[in-house]
């Protein structure tokens, strides 16, 4: 199978909730939330191009400093997206340090911070290292409602949940999944090689039968011929959904089901046992049973509970068992 991204929880099911989405092709990665990043290598952090922040509680944003420190001397742009207040949070973080050593000879590194709402972007700003991170407004992207990012091969969608404060849930949707049938390539006497990655990228970006791709020796090959020969198989792209920090309620339920619908993998917070639902409610969090029910109703093919409360340290099996029972229950309760 050739999925664009491989998702993994940086801190496993306990600890700060942060999802690392590593791209299979090209040196690139996304983060959903930016809590403790210490388990990631500097090389992995160096790949991060986009960070999608659910909300600004510390366990979802405290990793910003490590990200900044490792990226500061690398040219390029780091893009952050989050609920209103995200850009103010970035500005406040940057204001904590003295930047007198930065000037026109510094690496051309920039941070872009974009405040997102379900109605569209509320604002976007750039902070450039060469200007000692002075805050400048920039044009916000114009995207359809519900979209945070739109690229040829993928999009990132969001919904706004209630966690006492707004908390965003995200889904990365690959537009198309492309698999290679090696036997069909063999029959056409075409060897595998880097040319296939480029051809698959063209297909994922929507290239059709009339397009040409560059073959193994730089020759032009007809995409239509390759498709008719069965060399490539196209299927709906992978969907990875990430839900964290949301209380139980009808508005949240409807939005979680929407963002998680048909997910190939759903990461969903399951921090409390249902026996403690009064505590979970008071802190605007889901219980494991509620999370399992939502994962089942959304039709998630794989569901991964995470963000376990430290109060269950050593007893995480009970949270997993409660979650799995609700997720695997057949029919409606
Ligand atoms: Zn929170």
Rounded to the nearest angstrom, the distance between the terminal CA atoms is: 35 Å
Q: What is the 3D form?
A: globular
Number of strands: 18
Nearest-angstrom radius of gyration? 22 Å
Alpha plus pi helix count: 10
Mean pLDDT across the residues is 94
Q: How would a textbook summarize the main sheet?
A: 8 strands, mixed
Write the layout of secondary structure elements.
Layout: E1 5-9, E2 19-23, E3 29-32, H1 42-46, E4 48-52, H2 64-71, E5 76-82, H3 86-95, E6 109-117, E7 120-128, E8 135-137, E9 147-150, E10 154-162, E11 166-174, E12 176-180, H4 182-187, H5 194-204, E13 212-214, E14 220-222, H6 223-228, E15 232-236, E16 239-243, H7 250-260, E17 265-269, H8 277-282, H9 288-297, E18 303-306, H10 316-328
Parallel strand pairs: 3-4, 4-5, 5-6, 16-17, 17-18
Antiparallel strand pairs: 1-2, 2-3, 6-7, 7-8, 9-10, 10-11, 11-16, 12-15, 13-14
Helix pairs in contact: 9-10
Zinc ion binds at residues 55, 57, 163, 245.
Description:
There is one protein chain. The chain is of the alpha/beta class. It has helices at 42-46, 64-71, 86-95, 182-187, 194-204, 223-228, 250-260, 277-282, 288-297, 316-328, and strands at 5-9, 19-23, 29-32, 48-52, 76-82, 109-117, 120-128, 135-137, 147-150, 154-162, 166-174, 176-180, 212-214, 220-222, 232-236, 239-243, 265-269, 303-306. The chain has three domains: 5-154, no CATH class; 176-236, no CATH class; 239-328, no CATH class. The chain is built from ten helices and 18 strands. An eight-stranded mixed beta sheet has the order 1-2-3-4-5-6-7-8. Strands 9-10-11-16-17-18 form a six-stranded mixed beta sheet. Strands 12-15 form a two-stranded antiparallel ribbon. The relative contact order is 0.11. The mean pLDDT is 94. Residues 55, 57, 163, 245 line the site of zinc ion (ZN).
């Amino acid at each position: 199978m050739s999925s664009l991204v491989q998702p993994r929880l940086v801190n496993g099911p306990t600890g700060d909730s942060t999802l690392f989405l590593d791209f299979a092709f090209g040196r690139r990665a996304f983060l959903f939330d930016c809590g403790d990043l210490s388990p990631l290598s500097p090389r992995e952090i160096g790949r991060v191009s986009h960070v999608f922040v659910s909300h600004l509680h510390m366990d979802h944003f405290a990793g910003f400093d490590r990200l900044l420190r490792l990226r500061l001397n690398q040219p390029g742009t780091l893009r952050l997206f989050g609920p209103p207040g995200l850009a103010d949070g970035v500005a406040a973080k940057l204001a904590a340090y003295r930047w007198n050593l930065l000037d026109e000879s510094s690496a051309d590194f920039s941070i872009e911070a974009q405040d997102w709402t379900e109605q569209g972007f509320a604002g976007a700003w750039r902070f450039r290292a060469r200007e000692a991170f002075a805050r400048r407004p920039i044009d916000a992207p114009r995207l359809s409602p519900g979209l945070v990012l739109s690229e040829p091969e993928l999009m990132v969608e969001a919904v706004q949940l209630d966690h006492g404060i707004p908390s965003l849930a995200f889904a990365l949707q690959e537009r198309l999944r492309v698999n290679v049938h090696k036997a069909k390539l063999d029959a056409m006497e075409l060897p595998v090689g880097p040319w296939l990655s480029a051809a698959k990228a063209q297909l994922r970006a929507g290239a059709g039968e009339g397009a040409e791709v560059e073959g193994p020796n730089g020759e032009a090959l007809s995409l239509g011929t390759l498709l008719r020969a069965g060399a490539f198989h196209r299927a709906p792209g992978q969907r990875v959904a990430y839900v964290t920090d949301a209380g139980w309620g009808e508005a949240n339920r409807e939005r979680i089901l929407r963002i998680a619908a048909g997910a190939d993998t759903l990461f969903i917070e399951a921090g409390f046992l249902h026996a403690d639902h009064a505590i979970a409610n008071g802190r605007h969090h889901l219980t494991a049973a509620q999370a399992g029910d939502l994962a089942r109703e959304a039709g998630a093919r794989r569901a991964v509970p995470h963000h376990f409360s430290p109060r269950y340290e050593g007893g995480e099996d009970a949270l997993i068992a409660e979650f799995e029972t609700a997720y695997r229950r057949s029919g409606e309760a």
